[in-house]
Amino acid sequence: xxxxxxxxxxxxxxxxxxxxxxxxxxxxxxxxxxxxxxxxxxxxxxxxxxxxxxxxxxxxxxxxxxxxxxxxxxxxxxxxxxxxxxxxxxxxxxxxxxxxxxxxxxxxxxxxxxxxxxxxxxxxxxxxxxxxxxxxxxxxxxxxxxxxxxxxxxxxxxxxxxxxxxxxxxxxxxxxxxxxxxxxxxxxxxxxxxxxxxxxxxxxxxxxxxxxxxxxxxxxxxxxxxxxxxxxxxxxxxxxxxxxxxxxxxxxxxxxxxxxxxxxxxxxxxxxxxxxxxxxxxxxxxxxxxxxxxxxxxxxxxxxxxxxxxxxxxxxxxxxxxxxxxxxxxxxxxxxxxxxxxxxxxxxxxxxxxxxxxxxxxxxxxxxxxxxxxxxxxxxxxxxxxxxxxxxxxxxxxxxxxxxxxxxxxxxxxxxxxxxxxxxxxxxxxxxxxxxxxxxxxxxxxxxxxxxxxxxxxxxxxxxxxxxxxxxxx
Length: 474
Known about the structure:
The chain has helices at 19-45, 52-73, 81-100, 103-113, 120-140, 151-163, 190-215, 232-248, 251-269, 272-292, 294-304, 314-329, 353-360, 362-386, 390-415, 432-453, 463-466; strands at residues 2-3, 171-174, 177-183, 186-188, 217-220, 223-226, 472-473. By secondary structure, it is mainly α. The protein has one domain (17-456). The strands form three sheets. It has a three-stranded antiparallel beta sheet, with no helix packed on it. Strands 1-7 form a two-stranded antiparallel sheet. Helix 1 packs antiparallel against helix 2 (52-73) and helix 15 (390-415) packs antiparallel against helix 16 (432-453). The chain is globular, with a radius of gyration of 25 Å.
C-alpha cells in the first residue's frame, strides 16, 4: 500500500534587512557628537552650549529621515554606511563649531573681511541639503546599472566640471588654486562632483575593454606590458590629470583622478603591470610639474622643510603649525576645545581641520577617525565584492578607492607625509561641495549594496513541481 501526497516548491528564504541594527547604530551616531558638543562648551565657557539640544534634535531628525528613506527604498542595504557617515558628519559639525568660538579666528576674519560669520550654522544647512540629495538619489536611482548607459556622456560631463573653474568670470582663484566657481553668491568646487561622474565613465569603459587590456600584452622583465594602442586610455587620463594640475594648480584632484583610474584598471584586469606603469607615470608627472609650476613648487618646499621658510612663506607656516599641533596633542590630546590649532589661520576649519583632531584628541583620536574612514572604505569594497554585475563591482571599487585616496592625500598633507594638496577631509571640513558630494557617494554605495544583498526572487512554480508523487511504503 502506498500514500500519494502533494508537495509545493519552497520559496526563497527571507534574509534579514538589518534596518533595526542601522537604527540602533544611528542612535549612537547622534549621541556621541552631542557629548562632544557638551564637552567643547564646558571646556571653553564652563557651561553647556545653549544650542546643544537644538543641534541634537536637528542631527537626529536628519538621520531619521535618511534612515526612513533607506528602510523604504533600499531595504537590504549595508547597515553600517549610513551610521558611519552620520557620525563623521556630526563630529565635523562639532569641530567647526569649536573653531567658530576661537577669538583668534574671529579677529582674523574681522581684519581680513570686515566681519566674522560663523561656519557651523552654514555647515548644518549644507548637511540638510546633502541629506535631501541622499534621499533623492535613492528615490530616483532604482538600479545603479542604469548609469552604464551614460558612460561617454559622463566623461564629457566630468570634463565640463573640470573646465568650469578656469573660465574667466566664472572661476575663482582662492589662495593660488583655481578650483572654485561662484554662482549666485555661493562657491562651488566642481572637482568634488567630478570624481563621482568620472567613476561612471571608468566603470563603463573598463567593463567593455577589460579583456583587451588584460589578455593582449607582452611579457618583459616579469611584467605583462600592454600593447601600444591599449595604453591610450591611461595616457589620456594621465594627460588630463596633468592639465588639471597645470591650469588649476590642483594637485589633489589630479592625484585623485589618476589614482582612481589605476585602481579600477588593476581590479578590472588583475595585471600588476598597470600599477607599476601608473606609479612610474605619476612620479614622472609630479616631478615635471613640481619643478615648473610655482604653486606646486611652494608646497613641495613647505613639505621638505616647513621650518626653513616658516617666517617668509604662508604655506610653510601652515604646515609647521599643523605639525606642531599633532606633536602637542600627544597620545590622548589636550581635550575638546583646549588646543591651539586656530593658530593655523584661515584654513583651520577646512584643509587643516584634521590638525584639530590631532591636537585635542591626540593619537588615539586620530586613529579612531581613521578607523571610521577605514570602515566606510571596507564596506565599500565588501559591496564591490558582493555585487552581481561587473559594472557595479567596478563602480563601487572606484568610489571606495577615490574616498580612500582623498583620506590619504588630506591626512598625509597635514601630517607632513606628502605635500599639501588643497583637498578637504570628507564630512569633517567646512564646505558645501565636499559634504554634498560625499553624501551622494554614500547613497550610491547604499544602492549598489542593496542590489547586491537583496535575495533573488523565488522561481515561478511549474505544473510539474506542483504535483509530485511521493510513494511511501505501507
